[in-house]
């Protein structure tokens, strides 16, 4: 829904996902709603670097380049530190850390090539990227989100050293009612239902509003980190 909020504000958005059918549905909704921007679906597997590089090449040819990059993909697998599978850990890192870094790098190179000095890279993190929850199944996932916190801070430092005014922001939500829990607990759907009933969750629109707020800030304002949690959620 962040895609549609940006389109509503007049932006041309390339929505990238493996499940491109969902993006196509949102694109149709944008057209029927008469939004001033455009949502363009693009199928991309963020665990495959060649897919990501092809995506940025396609964006360059079709739409000149990237001015704003929002890294929203995230993956959680129940792989504890004492008994988790190495393959699961690698999958988490490939999506949550490596893909995010590749997209940030390619977005920056696109901006640099076109002399875009006011672009923005936004990393959608998680509140557990700032504190460790007492849940063994989530500890490796939490480590990947701590990495996102560090990477965003490092990105800001490198952007300053490069003498650019490109912004880098980290948005860290708490519990948001999305498909995330349903996918994570696909074998036990009742757990996902219970998760979203445990508190009054954040809605996708809450995160989309935060993204719009970040992008609406004046050029001289650097919004580094935003933490958003449900009032009822305890960490």
From TrEMBL:
Highest taxon of the source? Eukaryota
- Catalytic activity, reaction form: 17beta-estradiol + NAD(+) = estrone + NADH + H(+); 17beta-estradiol + NADP(+) = estrone + NADPH + H(+); a 3beta-hydroxysteroid + NADP(+) = a 3-oxosteroid + NADPH + H(+)
Pathway the protein takes part in: Steroid biosynthesis; estrogen biosynthesis
The coiled-coil regions, if any, are none
Q: What is its EC number?
A: 1.1.1.270, 1.1.1.62
Q: Which GO terms describe its molecular function?
A: 3-beta-hydroxysteroid 3-dehydrogenase (NADP+) activity; estradiol 17-beta-dehydrogenase [NAD(P)+] activity
Which keywords does the record carry? Oxidoreductase
Q: Show the InterPro entries listed in the entry.
A: NAD(P)-bd_dom_sf, SDR_fam
Main role?
A: Catalyzes the conversion of the 17-keto group of estrone, 4- and 5-androstenes and 5-alpha-androstanes into their 17-beta-hydroxyl metabolites and the conversion of the 3-keto group of 3-, 3,17- and 3,20- diketosteroids into their 3-hydroxyl metabolites. Exhibits reductive 3-beta-hydroxysteroid dehydrogenase activity toward 5-beta-androstanes, 5-beta-pregnanes, 4-pregnenes and bile acids. May also reduce endogenous and exogenous alpha-dicarbonyl compounds and xenobiotic alicyclic ketones.
Q: Which family does it belong to?
A: Belongs to the short-chain dehydrogenases/reductases (SDR) family.
Name recorded for this polypeptide = Dehydrogenase/reductase SDR family member 11
Q: Which organism does this sequence originate in?
A: Sinocyclocheilus grahami (Dianchi golden-line fish)
Gene designation: LOC107592792
């Amino acid at each position: 829904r962040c895609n549609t909020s940006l389109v509503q504000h007049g932006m041309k958005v390339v929505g990238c996902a493996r499940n491109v059918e969902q993006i196509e549905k949102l694109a149709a909704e944008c057209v029927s709603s008469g939004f001033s921007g455009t949502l363009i679906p693009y199928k991309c597997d963020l665990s495959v670097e060649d897919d990501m590089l092809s995506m940025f090449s396609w964006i360059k040819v079709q739409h000149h380049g990237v001015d704003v990059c929002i890294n929203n993909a995230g993956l959680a697998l129940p792989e504890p530190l004492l008994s988790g599978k190495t393959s699961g850990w690698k999958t988490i890192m490939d999506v949550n850390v490596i893909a995010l870094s590749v997209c940030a790098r390619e977005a920056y190179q696109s901006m640099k090539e076109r002399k875009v000095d006011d672009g923005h890279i936004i990393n959608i993190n998680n509140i557990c990227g700032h504190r460790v929850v007492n849940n063994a199944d989530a500890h490796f996932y939490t480590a990947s989100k701590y990495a996102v916190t560090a990477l965003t801070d490092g990105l800001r430092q490198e952007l300053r050293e490069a003498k650019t005014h490109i912004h880098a922001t980290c948005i860290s939500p708490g519990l948001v009612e999305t498909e995330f829990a349903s996918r994570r607990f696909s074998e036990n759907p009742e757990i996902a239902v219970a998760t979203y009933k445990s508190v009054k969750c954040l809605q996708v629109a809450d995160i989309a509003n935060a993204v719009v707020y970040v992008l609406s800030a004046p050029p001289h304002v650097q919004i580094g980190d935003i933490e958003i949690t449900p009032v009822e959620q305890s960490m």
